[in-house]
Amino acid sequence: MNKDSFYPIGTPGTPWGPGEVAKWRSQQQVQRSYADDVVRKIDRLRERFDVEEYGQLDYGSDAFPLYAVRSRNWDDQLPSVLLTGGVHGYETSGVHGALQFLDRHAAEYAGRVNLLVAPCVSPWAYERIQRWNVDAVDPNRSFVKDSASGESAAVMELVAPLRDKLLVHVDLHETTDTDESEFRPALAARDGKSSEPGEIPDGFYLVGDSEDPQPGFQQAIIDAVAEVTHIAPADASGEIIGTKMVAPGVINYPVKSLGLCAGVSNARYRTTTEVYPDSPRATPQQCNGAQVAAVRAAIDYALAQQA
């Protein structure tokens, strides 16, 4: 889509008002079930973990309880790790990678770290395979004071007691072909701006914090994920999604000033994963596995630095 293309909602050059948001919302159809896909898996974890409802989203006739999974024997003397998935509901492996890590690998870290996991931050969007929430707000630009996103505000409240105590935060995401075909054009239309064509990177990459980049930490994750799936190369300009690549498969953003989930705490080590599920070289299981590999490598690196 180029800057002269017309998104089917709104008037080019004019930001959306309530009418356009309502029209957009009416076109979002349920395509999968949060209760069946996510909540059932969380329920199966209750024998091994503490599960808490940290909020509820009430969207008309839709009500979505928000669940976090915690280490059962939480020990304030241990370092703590935060995992978030599904901040963008359409990014499937973020949700299921977090759940897979809990089910298959969390026991490896028992007595070594405390785990706090919010596996599906945006359940309304998960069901509709959508980036935004019900109000056409991007939760991953909304981790700010007086947030316009209930999803983001709930996570901020959940994390607040640990904001200065976390060692690691890994925020699990995907970059998909629909970022270019649907979501970026929709964003431009919503904001009354032009939509310039971009390039979707073929492979996994990380978004570090430009204010505290931790290159060794990012590299350890890239090395681990490379055993599972391919790492995205830079484009002809040496960039990934319009940002200079600072190391193979790594770019940096100012996560706090942008209101990104990775900036929700002051964790010493933080990163945002980006899996590419539309690659012909990656299966859904590889995508989940890449998220799990990233989480394990992140924790292992941080613990090694603590030793």
TrEMBL record:
Names of required cofactors: Zn(2+)
Keywords linked to the UniProt accession: Hydrolase, Metal-binding, Zinc
Keyword Zinc: yes
KW Hydrolase (keyword) present: yes
Residue runs in coiled coils: none
InterPro entries named among the record's database cross-references: AstE_AspA_cat, Peptidase_M14
Record-annotated Peptidase M14 domain positions: 30-307
Entry superkingdom: Bacteria
Pfam families: AstE_AspA_cat
Family: Belongs to the peptidase M14 family.
Listed name of the protein: M14 family metallocarboxypeptidase
Originating species: Novilysobacter avium
